[in-house]
Write a structure and sequence with these properties.
Radius of gyration of chain B: 14 Å
Distance between the termini of chain A: 30 Å
Structural class of chain A: mainly beta
Number of strands of chain B: 11
Largest interface: A-B, 23 and 24 residues
Helix content of chain A: under 10%
Helix content of chain B: under 10%
Largest sheet of chain B: 6 strands, mixed
Oligomer: heterodimer
Number of helices of chain A: 0
Strand content of chain A: over 45%
Chain lengths: 112, 112
């Protein structure tokens, strides 16, 4: 699992509440990515980070923000969750010196 | 035209069959090609990684890349029920912070 831990693994929340998902890695990887996976859409990039405090938007970043205050943690925040953000969220890291990404186990989020 | 096209299936085959999974792409900048396998309710796991045109074999799996036709394939020989999963193709150009573009995935079921 490339030393990636996502938490929580499951979450149910209500529309309008803030939600933070955490991705923790133990191997000092520089690049980290947040994706969402939905039926009919596949994996879509939300935000990514290329170092501490260095982040950028992906293709579906609206309604999401991220923070990376230390190498090992990459946080994804839904400021005010909506039902359209019900999804499975995956964190990934880029392998050292590779062009390959390795994924965490995912967080299943339901917004009611 | 989407950057990566992958037939979503579903694909159902008998045990022992040869399976062919395919993706086409439009971006000629893609240089790296990957296949991920994703079991139900799990994260994607890397199955095959190729850089150049041609074939790469690993056990029962063969990845094929044809850059001139912008077409990649994954062949599974002697398919097993344990191969039942969703298969995702992914591609990257190396630059642009090592972002990958994914196909939507093909759901494969191998029947005993």
């Amino acid at each position: 699992d490339a030393g990636i831990t996502q938490s929580p693994r499951h979450k149910v929340t209500e529309t309008g509440t803030p939600v933070t998902l955490r991705c923790h890695q133990t191997e000092n990887h520089r690049y980290m990515y947040w994706y969402r996976q939905d039926p009919g859409h596949g994996l879509r990039l939300i935000h990514y980070s290329y170092g501490v405090k260095d982040t950028d938007k992906g293709e579906v970043s609206d309604g999401y923000s991220v923070s990376r205050s230390k190498t090992e943690d990459f946080l994804l925040t839904l400021e005010s969750a909506t039902s359209s953000q019900t999804s499975v969220y995956f964190c990934a890291i880029r392998g050292q010196g590779e062009n390959i990404q390795y994924f965490g186990a995912g967080t299943r989020l339901s917004v009611l | 035209q989407k950057e990566v096209e992958q037939d979503p299936g579903p694909l159902s085959v008998p045990e022992g069959a040869i399976v062919s999974l395919n993706c086409t792409y439009s971006n000629s900048a893609f240089q790296y090609f990957m296949w991920y396998r994703q079991y139900s309710r799990k994260g994607p796991e890397l199955l095959m990684y190729t850089y150049s045109s041609g074939n790469k074999e690993d056990g029962r799996f063969t990845a094929q890349v044809d850059k001139s036709s912008k077409y990649i394939s994954l062949f599974i020989r002697d398919s097993q029920p344990s191969d039942s999963a969703t298969y995702l193709c992914a591609m990257g150009s190396g630059g642009s912070n090592y972002k990958l573009t994914f196909g939507k995935g093909t759901l494969l079921t191998v029947n005993p």
